[in-house]
Amino acid sequence: MGGRRSWATAVAPALWAVAGTALVVQSLLTWTSRGALSTTAPVDVLGLVRAGSLPSVSTAEVVALVALPLLGAALLAGAALPGRGVRRVRALLGLLAVAVTGLLLVRVADLDPTHLSGARPGSGALLAALGALVALAALGTDRRSPTLEENPR
């Protein structure tokens, strides 16, 4: 039974680490096959917007593009930390990352189903979506796996 408990408590941190890694790495990849972000990665967008090269990208989108890898780094850094408070912060950061990813998929990758532009999601958008899905899975798993200090049996 001891082996099963250690495996079960290791699932949530592993999922948080995968989600965080995906959300960080997505910033190095292109998000769409057409449009402003088809040839540049989000990590380069801030400089391009400041230089005036990307007028079609709004300030809110830039903030979201910068926030997503920061949220991923925070999830990655706190993936294995124990405690109820840490789990709550991870859950909040994970939900925020899911919301930001959804916003970016609709706005930046131009994947709005009501306006089919012919753009396909790039590898960055797909990796961000995967990271968001894994974060949701981690959230569900993290809620069900108490730490040893909360359930010392």
Automatic annotation (TrEMBL):
Bilayer-crossing residues are 62-82, 89-109, 121-139
- Superkingdom, according to UniProt? Bacteria
Name the keywords, alphabetized.
Membrane, Transmembrane, Transmembrane helix
Q: What is this protein called?
A: Uncharacterized protein
Q: Specify the taxonomic lineage.
A: Bacteria, Bacillati, Actinomycetota, Actinomycetes, Propionibacteriales
